[in-house]
Amino acid sequence: MNEKSKNRVVITGLGIVCPLGNDVKTMWDSILNCRNGMGTTTIFDASTYPTKFCSEVKNYDIKKYTKNPELHKDGNRHSRFVIGAVAQACQQAKIDIETENPKDGIARRRMGVYLGAGEGSVDNENFFNAIVQGWPENSSQMDWKKWAAVAFGKMLPVRELEQEPNMPAAHISMFTGARGPVRSCLTACAASTQAIGEAFKMLQSNQADIMIAGGAHSMIHPLGIMGFNRLTALSTRNDSPATASRPFTASRDGFVIGEGAAIVILETLESAKKRGVEILAEIIGYGSSNDAFRVTDMHEEARGAVQAMEAALKDAKLSYKDIDYVSTHGTSTAENDKIETLALKKVFKEEAKNTPASSIKSMMGHLIGAAGAAELITCILAIRDNILPPTINLNDPDPALDLDYVPNKPRKAQVDIVMKESFGFGGQNNVVIVKRFSQ
Amino acid sequence: MTVITGLGAITPLGLSYKDLWSGLCQGKCGIDRITAFDPSGFTCQIAGQAPEFNIRDYVPKSMRKTTKLMSRDIELAVVAASEVFKDAGLNTKAFDEQNVTINPERTAIILGAGLISCDLVELAPAVAKGITDGRFDIKKWGTYGIEQVTPLWLLKYLPNMLACHVGIIHDIQGPSNTITCAEAAGHLAIGEAMQIIARGDADVALAGGGEAKVNAIVHLRQCLLKRATSDYNNNPKGACRPFDADAKGSVFGEAAACVILESPENAKKRGAKVYARIAGFGQSCSINSKYESLEPDGKGVQYAIETALENAKIKPEQIDLIIPHGTGIFSDDIAEAKGIQKALGSAADKIPVFPTKSMTSNTGAAAGAVDIVAACCAIKDGIIPAAVNFKNISKDCRLNIAKEQIKKNIKYVLCCSYTYGGQTAAMVLKNNE
Fold first, then answer.
1. Whole-angstrom distance between the N-terminal and C-terminal Cα of chain A?
2. Residue A46 belongs to domain with CATH number
3. For the residues A118-142, what does the mean pLDDT come to?
4. Segments forming the whole domain that contains residue A132
5. Residues of chain B contacting A178 with CB distance shorter than 8 Å
6. Do A135 and B128 touch (CB under 8 A)?
7. B3-117+157-430 maps to CATH 3.40.47.10
8. Which of A109, A305, B258, B276 is deepest in the core (most CB within 10 A)?
9. What residues of chain A lie within 8 A of the CB of B164, using their CB?
């Protein structure tokens, strides 16, 4: 489509439930005070796992956000978190929720959902015990009849249904009445950035007026942590969870897994003006690429990451020189931080060292599918407050990684245009660019 | 208008899209008693299983080691992707590295995928290390169990890995996404790929979906939800009966199907054969507190169809064929019929409707893509196959289910899908005249 017919797209609401707080203000306050969300894993007994800590959402009460908690009670952790995040974002964007007769001037068929959402946890107790019964010690094959007897006897249909990754989006439709385009994607750690990018494109091409976009995920469950531990992707700094997520340091040993939900309300400029809601920022660029290299590793020359960043700049019609701040993927794994730094150097050339690039995963942990959306919210706040969120725990910089990672404390700076990048296991790279809104 | 220039499918009807289409035309049913595991303790003991294949035949020699990291879902997608590029006449790195005819950076891959559930037989020996007094003991599992699990275990079960493996094998470097909207995922993935091409972010896209639902835990889930029929274990071929008065539930299965989408300019430039154009796409959702079922009035289906028709700028009467989602779950079929009837008005009484799942089974994230492939074949051959397992129409359903094969020139086909969880999609294909 030609440039003139593209809608401008703005952000009119933010909502978050995350390890640093269950609302945007608390989360931002935590970041500006360099607090982190890590602690011993309490969701399940991980005391004999290689990694015994994580970054959990604390004291979340869904009843604060919905008058129909019954409708969401069977939802997995992330489906319940997303209700809180959507409620906050809709309140800010003046979108009526849980009503048959909304008075917000938004046609429900023009309001959609695009979520980067993860799977729910298996029904652990019954899942494992069904295997135990079907496959006792020293067995060599599954007795499916025995397995099925436990599974059919103990497992609950609703608990099984709620594991499906499209269920958080289902809860959002129920909650808001959204009847426009509803899509859910799962591209590992890049999912919610991709969801926001695709939602932006839907609005640009006039497929909807409003998109509720973002992510929801919790992989803090026995199989999730087992899987990441086996990949040796998680930090095992069990004696010091608070300093375990240390992106760009020489002593980094893996990421710290988190959980949560983060939502942004994207809206066409025309709709936002018509409704007279406050505009928080404008989204102006999106780039997506695939490494096509290995499922286990990022491309050695950062090919896919560079391509996605350059595609986002091109989409935004900007030069790398225009970017004031990069919110990195910055996982604190040996590989990501090295390859991401290389990508930044390739894209930002002579400006690489002058372009601040921090990782809030040092405080929040890695929200996997929800990470990009949570981090994009901090980009919008960075623009609002002209402040750069820091990378904490950066006390022993990796000598090979020499960019400005905004070490250890927030910094005042003029922040007008921000790039958010996310890279997923398997090679999906997604980048979005947001800008201070001006007429 | 984005065009479709390649087809690929592995389904219970065969290892190729040609087997799928000839099977559908012959009324062949791919549903049988489950052999992947002993189903005798399950309420539903039947499913649609794909014929045997050796995954190593579909992967270049240099990449055969990677097949160890492929769950069944990934394998199915790899098989279908291999066929689709060949059918489109596109040469990728996988076939001949010296004469690649796609531009990797301008090629996208958007696949629908399910919640891949792990292989319990693979996990069981590790779980067996974590038992105290006959019960699972998580402390012991943490100490002795998890170290028994293969290190790259997680990578086999991430839904995005279908697209990742296919992308690596064929060197696809453009946008890559994985749509996880269960039974609506196939259509939604093809819709998103179309949008990516329309906005100029790629010249070529591989799009579709894949899911292996013949896995004990996946199958259990559909049994517990009572979506899988338990009434036809002794009559697998007659089990899945979309829109029939005797429909008692769906039958699940495994498949992957994909299409190659291109901008018309790209297809013209390389002289590609065009099966169909995507004339319209719409999506919405069903809102129902019983999340596993479609809302009784089918409003989400209606809205998606209305948007797709508006998008295609056509009237209901112009549609020559409808391929519905039609699962064989009685209440869902009725709700879908109501949605279609509302969207199309009186035209819904006349347009032939051809449900495929009675033969292919309900293949989850692959299902919508299987139907798009079937729609392309119908347009190409001018054939609307006869529905099977359809005797008496259910009350409240006015649809004109195709009882006999019809030969006619097909200009517009409407395909629709919906899923538990609510997402709905509709796509209008047009012949290339």
1. 23
2. 3.40.47.10
3. 92
4. 124-159
5. 285
6. yes
7. yes
8. B258
9. 290, 295, 426-428
